Q: What sequence folds into this?
């Protein structure tokens, strides 16, 4: 027992058992599962307490589980043990014969780190648990350090989809701006970990930037992993596929990174089960309350009932087809006679053009929050309209792999080219018209985006002796309509190639500088 903390995953698995028990206690009350989990938590506190093993688990997870158990039971020893695990991390206590200390997030103390690094899932789970500890212990210094890490990671180490982890080796973060599209690892579990981390940051300080990343990650990583039927999954989520994928056998677990199509199951099966628990808990990410009233952070058809801190009860229901439609209708079902504030998030991409209607008056929204304060009555409606206009997005010039390219987005959805929609041409030959305007087909459920582009036609010449030339290779461009689909729908129609970022060409037919591929 506990003789292989680097790879044994004993505390990691215990953490998931504790979280299952927490979910059980919150939804159905105490039972044998909850009692068993409490016994296990007591054992962990005894084995790893101040006088016990001065060690941590190779894979963080137990930290947030212990804090959640503390919140359910009120037993301080669980919070204290979680704080101990966070404080012990970063002092090189884990063996590094097969991996580095950074891989285990054991190279730098949590409060001293400047950015997330190493194994992406481990880093994100640890950060989520550390935020829980910081909030419950009122540790402002630790919370500030985690905010700095979130900001640096999002600014320089996060994919357009919200995915995290650019290296297959070690399933890890790369260096700053190391974000290759074709070699992106972007593990599904890292997407879940990012949602966990961002949600806790949102609860800590209310900054809607965290909710924006949650939305982006849910729609473009978590939603991409399962197929429409829900019986096959991606473990990794690249932003480019240059060769058609191979269908995985249905009766053999797939290697996690080698499955180029979605697979029914994996040799390491964390991602399908993590998707399942995330979908089961989506309702918990929709809304919050504070002394002012109710805040809605994510938009989905839902009914929300809440007790404000002063005991007043409010209830609303939301009708929307978001993100296929930008209309969000909030109807008040229950309200006290005294005023309270309904707050709706305005995503960062919707700051120009968002409007809100209440009491028959429509006005433009200024800033990130649309707030309505009044004494609501049952039946009152508030309508938020978000502009779902297709747009081009350009990578930071420091991302070498993406220089000279652009991507297409609509609302929170990243779009991609898939070979199924351009069957007569190889995707590497396609170019985006740098000044063209993308448009979306007005179909139920959201149609594809169409945009003027080109096919790069290189003159047929004898193949050179090696792939380098003394002058640029020149060719001509033929006009072509390009068809984009939501990234989360790719690979649903059989083996295909795909890319999110597409090289640009000027209106005059001049190719923009891009990575040679």
A:
């Amino acid at each position: 027992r506990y003789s292989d903390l680097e790879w044994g995953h004993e505390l990691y698995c215990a953490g998931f058992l504790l979280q299952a028990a927490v979910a059980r206690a919150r939804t159905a009350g105490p039972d044998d599962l909850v009692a068993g989990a409490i016994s296990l938590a007591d054992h962990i506190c005894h084995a790893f307490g101040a006088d016990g093993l001065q060690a941590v688990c190779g894979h963080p997870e137990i930290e947030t589980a212990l804090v959640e158990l503390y919140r359910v039971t009120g037993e301080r020893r669980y919070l204290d043990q979680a704080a101990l695990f966070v404080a012990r991390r970063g002092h090189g206590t884990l063996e590094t014969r097969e991996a580095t200390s950074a891989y285990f997030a054991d190279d730098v103390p949590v409060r001293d780190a400047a950015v997330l690094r190493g194994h992406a899932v481990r880093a994100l789970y640890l950060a989520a648990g550390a935020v829980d500890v910081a909030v419950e212990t009122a540790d402002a210094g630790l919370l500030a350090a985690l905010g700095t890490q979130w900001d640096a990671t999002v600014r320089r180490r996060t994919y357009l989809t919200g995915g995290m982890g650019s290296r297959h080796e070690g399933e890890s973060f790369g260096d700053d701006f190391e974000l290759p599209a074709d070699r992106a690892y972007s593990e599904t579990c890292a997407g879940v970990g990012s949602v966990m981390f961002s949600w806790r940051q949102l609860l800590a300080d209310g900054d809607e930037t965290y909710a924006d990343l949650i939305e982006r990650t849910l729609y473009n990583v978590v939603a991409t992993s399962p197929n429409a039927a829900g019986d096959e999954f991606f473990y990794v989520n690249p932003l480019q596929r240059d060769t058609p994928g191979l269908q995985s056998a249905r009766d053999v677990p797939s290697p996690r990174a080698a499955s180029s199509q979605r697979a029914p199951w994996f040799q390491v099966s964390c991602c399908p089960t993590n998707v399942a628990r995330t979908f089961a808990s989506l309702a918990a990410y929709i809304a919050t309350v504070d002394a002012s009233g109710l805040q809605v952070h994510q938009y989905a058809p839902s009914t929300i009932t809440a007790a404000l801190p002063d005991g007043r009860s409010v209830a609303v229901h939301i009708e929307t087809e978001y993100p296929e439609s930008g209309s969000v209708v909030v109807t008040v079902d229950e309200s006290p006679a005294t005023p309270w504030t309904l707050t709706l998030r305005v995503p960062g991409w919707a700051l120009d053009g968002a409007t809100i209607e209440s009491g028959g008056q429509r006005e433009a929204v200024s800033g990130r929050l649309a707030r309505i304060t009044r004494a609501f009555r049952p039946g009152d409606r508030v309508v938020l309209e978000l502009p779902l206009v297709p747009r081009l997005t350009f990578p930071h010039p420091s991302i070498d792999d993406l220089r000279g390219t652009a991507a297409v987005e609509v609302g929170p959805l990243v779009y991609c080219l898939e070979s199924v929609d351009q069957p007569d041409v190889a995707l590497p030959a396609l170019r985006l018209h740098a000044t063209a305007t993308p448009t979306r087909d007005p179909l139920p459920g959201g149609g594809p985006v169409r945009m003027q582009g080109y096919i790069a036609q290189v003159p047929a010449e004898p193949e050179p002796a090696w792939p380098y030339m003394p002058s640029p290779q020149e060719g001509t461009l033929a006009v072509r309509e390009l068809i984009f689909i939501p990234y989360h729908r790719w690979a649903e129609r059989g083996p295909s190639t795909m890319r999110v970022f597409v090289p640009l060409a000027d209106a005059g037919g001049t190719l923009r500088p891009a990575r040679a591929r």
Remarks:
- The first helix runs from residue 10 to 28.
- The first strand starts at residue 240 and ends at 241.
- DSSP finds nine helices and 20 strands in the chain.
- The CA atoms of residues 189 and 271 lie 5 Å apart.
